[in-house]
């Protein structure tokens, strides 16, 4: 069964510092990988996703993530934190075998989330 | 293009009651998925609907049900509410539900409180 582990439920950085949010997955085959952000009282917004091709994926708001198959990791980074980055971040996986009608479509498996605090 | 809308945004019910939540997907999207978000269990997949058919289901009791209409709008129903059903219920829509090509767009959620 697929699973996602986010290391660290809370991460605190200073404004301008590097942001590193860790995500490891467990899957029998390399899954599709996603990072979502959730601001207070809002739904989830997709930051970036990895499906195939280049393992370094660039997303919105200056975030990027690198898929490392050997480490089963998909860590999220941003070179310089901004106060507006304070939010909860979720790593998610989806079955690579999911095709339309296979029964695994439309299902994302999420990690427990990491709350990012940005200090002035 | 309008985003995913969910109504109502907030709901308070008492134990034993039932509740219906509504989700209107982005225009043209045919797949709607529902998730439950709680502090203890995190984000958990409830079910997915595509062309009025439930295509995938998570590990929730039968008290949780849903349906999708011909215009792709979806409702989920929870019967015999329990305190543990208090949660943020999120709806997400995508074109066809395929994870490699589609992106799931989430609504703001419905906050359900069971007293």
What's the short version?
By secondary structure, chain A is mainly β. Chain A has strands at 3-7, 10-14, 19-26, 32-38, 44-50, 56-58, 64-68, 73-78, 87-94, 109-110, 114-119. Chain A has no helices and 11 strands.
Molecular structure report:
- The complex is a heterodimer of chains A (120) and B (115).
- With 120 residues, chain A is mainly β.
- Chain A has no helices and eleven strands.
- Chain A has strands at residues 3-7, 10-14, 19-26, 32-38, 44-50, 56-58, 64-68, 73-78, 87-94, 109-110, 114-119.
- In chain A, the strands form two sheets. In chain A, strands 2, 4, 5, 9, 10 and 11 form a six-stranded mixed β-sheet that branches.
- The radius of gyration of chain A is 14 Å and the shape is globular.
- The model of chain A has no long low-confidence stretch (mean pLDDT 89).
- Chain B contains no helices and eleven strands.
- In chain B, strands 2, 4, 5, 6, 9, 10 and 11 form a seven-stranded mixed β-sheet that branches. Chain B has a four-stranded antiparallel β-sheet with strand order 1-3-8-7, with no helix packed on it.
- In chain B, a hairpin with a 2-residue loop joins strand 5 (42-50) and strand 6.
- The relative contact order of chain B is 0.32.
- The A-B interface holds A 32, 36, 41-46, 49, 51-52, 90, 92, 94-96, 98-101, 103-113 and B 4, 31-33, 35, 42-45, 48, 50, 55-56, 58, 90, 92, 94, 96-101, 103-109.
């Amino acid at each position: 069964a697929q699973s996602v582990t986010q290391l660290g439920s809370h991460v605190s950085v200073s404004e301008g510092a590097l942001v590193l949010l860790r995500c490891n997955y467990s899957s029998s085959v390399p899954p599709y990988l996603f990072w979502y952000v959730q601001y207070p009282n809002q739904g989830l917004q997709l930051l970036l996703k990895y499906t195939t091709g280049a393992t370094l994926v660039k997303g919105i708001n200056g975030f990027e993530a690198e898929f490392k198959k050997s480490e089963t990791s998909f860590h999220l980074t941003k070179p310089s934190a901004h106060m507006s980055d304070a939010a909860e971040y979720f790593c998610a996986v989806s079955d690579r075998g999911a095709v339309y009608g296979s029964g695994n479509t439309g299902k994302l498996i999420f990690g427990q989330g990491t709350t990012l605090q940005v200090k002035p | 293009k309008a985003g995913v809308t969910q109504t109502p945004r907030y709901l308070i019910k008492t134990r034993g009651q039932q509740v219906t939540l509504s989700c209107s997907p982005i225009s043209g999207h045919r797949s709607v998925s529902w998730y439950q978000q709680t502090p203890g269990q995190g984000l958990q997949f409830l079910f997915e609907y595509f062309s009025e058919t439930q295509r995938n289901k998570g590990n929730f009791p039968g008290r949780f049900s849903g349906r999708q209409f011909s215009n792709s709008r979806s409702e989920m129903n929870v019967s015999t509410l329990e305190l543990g059903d208090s949660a943020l219920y999120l709806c997400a829509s995508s074109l066809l539900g395929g994870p490699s090509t589609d992106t799931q767009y989430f609504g703001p959620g419905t906050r359900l409180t069971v007293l």
